[in-house]
Write a structure and sequence with these properties.
Largest sheet: 10 strands, mixed
Radius of gyration: 24 Å
Oligomer: single chain
CATH topology of the largest domain: Rossmann fold
Structural class: alpha/beta
CATH architecture of the largest domain: 3-Layer(aba) Sandwich
Bound molecules: cytidine-5'-triphosphate
Distance between the termini: 37 Å
Helix content: 25-40%
Strand content: 15-25%
């Protein structure tokens, strides 16, 4: 959906490190790019740069303490949470990363973070030994898994006189990344996103079931990321141990049949569907009402479940909806995934080789290849599922802006015959490239 560009509204958190003085340049860079900037400082940041400087440059009252109430009272605090496209923290100290990761809310910035539901980007700066410390890296991994973006620090001379990794990224890089992330804050406004996630369970008897190793993380991450971008999101989830993502309508189901029913109810009103669930392909032909005894269940009679995604791909309501499938494969995922994309009439499929370390079920990370209906493809190297969710949405949105592979028109079978050459999208440009079929 095209909409008029409004100036991005950025909340800049400034924390107490020597690099805090560079926040002034970040504010100027953001303002020059047309952004509105509201600054929140921690108490320690005030030791390094004065609120007056940042107030003058941003043109807005600078907030620090939890109980700071600017003109207009509390309503403004709430309005700030609701009406911002991005929370950027630059510089971010080891302390603030730990507080964000742990959910500590003891000043205005940390309280804002825990109340804020839009995109968050941090630009850490610290001594290189601190940067390398396991606790800092673990906190960053937690934040990344929640979809928080990180503008990695740079190598160079540090304030303590040492050389190493930990210098705040250049103001220019921070501003460019911030503007990119701020656009994500509203990029799916008006869309209705439907996501399936997790495994299904097909009962054998009151205590046993057939299922698989899916954790649901990829689907939950996509649901959360789409919500952060302003979409209305419904998540149909098989049994998982994950907390419900904020602001997402969650319907819990157990069986493939229940999942199919919930999906059908919402499909027509949705505009984008991500089917990440690992749906059981078969269920026992009958469910015993009493617990089966040893020996009784030695031979299972199974019947196929409905292929939910294939039904949607073939269904009358298919047109005008973006349909995205996922495929867990063992071995080279691309060939099998492309066949599924065509067979199920999808716009995109994202496939992984579950035998690779760091990819697949029940781990925090994944490695994916994304295939589009028009033959384009993109590799998504090892990253947390939270980061991958953002990258998947970015790719689809970039292509949509270029008018590529967003919602079906025409028959995919007819087009597929001339899809011998793959097109890899690199750096935003379409690069034609011959690719031999395996
Ligand atoms: N899917 C579905 N309903 C099913 C099976 C799969 O909606 N009964 C969806 C999944 O959510 C996923 C994609 O289809 O998006 C995966 O397709 P596929 O790989 O065909 O499922 P598998 O069962 O893994 O297929 P196969 O065993 O043939 O590899």
């Amino acid at each position: 959906m095209e909409r008029a560009e409004t100036p991005p509204r950025v909340v800049l958190g400034v924390t107490g490190g020597i690099a805090a003085y560079k926040a002034a340049e970040v504010v100027r860079g953001l303002r020059r790019a047309g952004a509105e900037v509201s600054v929140i400082m921690t108490e320690h940041a005030r030791e390094f740069i004065t609120p007056l400087t940042l107030q003058t440059l941003s043109g807005k009252t600078v907030l620090t303490g939890q109980f700071d109430v600017p003109t207009g009272g509390d309503i403004e605090h709430i309005a700030l949470v609701r009406n911002s496209d991005l929370l950027l923290v630059a510089p971010a100290t080891a302390d603030i990363l730990a507080k964000f990761a742990g959910g500590v809310a003891d000043d205005f910035l940390t309280t804002f973070y825990t109340a804020y539901t839009g995109p968050v980007l941090v630009a850490p700066a610290m001594n290189s030994r601190m940067w390398a410390h396991q606790s800092v890296q673990e906190n960053l991994a937690i934040l990344r898994s929640r979809g928080v973006g990180v503008v990695e620090p740079e190598e160079g001379e540090l304030a303590c006189g040492e050389e190493g990794m930990g210098r705040l990224a250049s103001e220019e890089r921070i501003v460019i990344e911030a503007l990119r992330w701020a656009r994500r804050g509203t990029s799916l406004a008006g869309e209705k996103v439907l996501v399936t996630a997790g495994p299904t369970r097909e009962a054998l008897d009151p205590v046993r079931f057939l299922s698989n190793r899916s954790s649901g993380r990829m689907g939950y991450a996509i649901a959360a990321a789409a919500r952060r971008r302003g979409a209305a999101v419904s998540l149909i989830s098989g049994p998982t141990s994950l907390p419900p993502p904020w602001g997402v309508e969650l319907a819990r189901v157990e069986t493939a049949e229940q999942m199919a029913e919930q999906v059908r109810r919402r499909f027509e009103e949705s505009t984008i569907c991500f089917m990440t669930a690992a749906v059981s392909d078969y269920r026992p032909s009958k469910v015993s009402q009493r617990k089966l005894s040893r020996g009784e269940g030695r031979v299972l009679d199974l019947v196929p479940t409905e292929d939910i995604l294939a039904s949607l791909g073939r269904g009358a309501s298919r047109e005008g909806r973006l349909l995205v499938g996922f495929a867990a494969e063992t071995g080279n995922p691309e060939t099998a995934a492309r066949k599924k994309l065509l067979d199920k009439n999808l716009d995109y499929i994202f496939a992984n080789d579950v035998t690779r370390s760091g990819a697949g079920f029940d781990v925090e990370t994944n490695i994916l290849v994304g295939l589009a209906r028009d033959g384009s493809w993109r590799k998504f190297p090892l990253a947390s599922k939270g980061e991958l969710a953002e990258q998947i949405l970015d790719w689809i949105e970039e292509r949509r802006k270029k008018g590529l592979a967003f919602a079906v028109t025409g028959s995919v079978k007819a087009r597929s015959s001339r899809e011998e050459g793959g097109k890899e999208e690199a750096g935003g440009a379409l690069v034609a490239r011959r690719r031999s079929r395996p």
